[in-house]
Amino acid sequence: MTYKPTSTDVQLDFHGDNREVAVIRLSRGAKRNALNDALILALRDIFENLPSTVGAAVIHGEGAHFCAGLDLGELQERDAGQGMHHSRMWHAALERVQYGPVPVIAALHGAVVGGGLELASACHIRVADESAFYALPEGSRGIFVGGGGSVRIPKLVGVARMTDMMLTGRVYNAQDGERAGFAQYLVPEGEAFTKALELAVRVAQNAPLTNYALMHALPRIAEQPADQGYLTEALMAAIAQSAPEAKQRVKAFLDGKANKVAKS
Q1: Contact predicate 193/58, CB 8 Å
Q2: Per the residue annotation, which of 138, 191, 223, 233 is the catalytic one?
Q3: Domain at 208-254, CATH class
Q4: Helix 244-254 vs helix 226-241: angle between axes, to the nearest 10 degrees?
Q5: Model confidence pLDDT, tens digit, residues 229-259
Q6: Are 178 and 132 in contact (CB under 8 A)?
Q7: pTM to 2 decimals?
Q8: Beta bridge partners of 185
Q9: Best CATH choice for the domain 10-204 from the list 3.90.1150.10, 3.40.50.410, 3.90.226.10, 3.30.310.170
Q10: Catalytic residue at 198?
């Protein structure tokens, strides 16, 4: 039985004959796909209940924007303890995106702002079209990022850039954002979802253990001292290459039956 999202603000569909790609759409277009708790919890639940056929996922937003950030209309007064627990709930939900069962490609257009940028930074590949723009307006609103942005965003663009954005309200357009590292791909306006889906189909064809290693081991290796990283790499390499699917793929390559590396 296919899982159905707990919030109407998120839609879940599948692409491919074997439903190998999950397509997740933020569907609060009238609110510029601003994030509320119900939507965040629905995202968590989706990634905890994906069918075993799924090998990759795409997240995109309906309407003119990917996500304009936190829905300030639903911002509640909380004491310090309540605020901390609320932030930790968002952390747990977005961790299921970053460290969930499959790689996630974000298709970005229009506003990728505040919590929307935090969500995008939890994905593994980001494809932006020329309408995309990036901002962190929390600084000018007297608040601070609470969805993991202070950890993830500096890893994409650096601490100095994030500090500048929050202190001054600086906005990056699509071209400058791609050069800064917010997105790995930049495509013409209206083509982000098509490119993201194309990449997701390709990613879903990888050996599952290789995808797992790239999602779960690689970012942790990057945080380890070199001697520990080398050992983790060796262990992960041994595990991945021992899988039956890996052995079949290597044999196919040696037998001349596998595709050669080509420019994309």
Answers
A1: yes
A2: 138
A3: mainly alpha
A4: 80
A5: 999 999 999 999 887 776 776 666 666 766 6
A6: no
A7: 0.93
A8: 127
A9: 3.90.226.10
A10: no
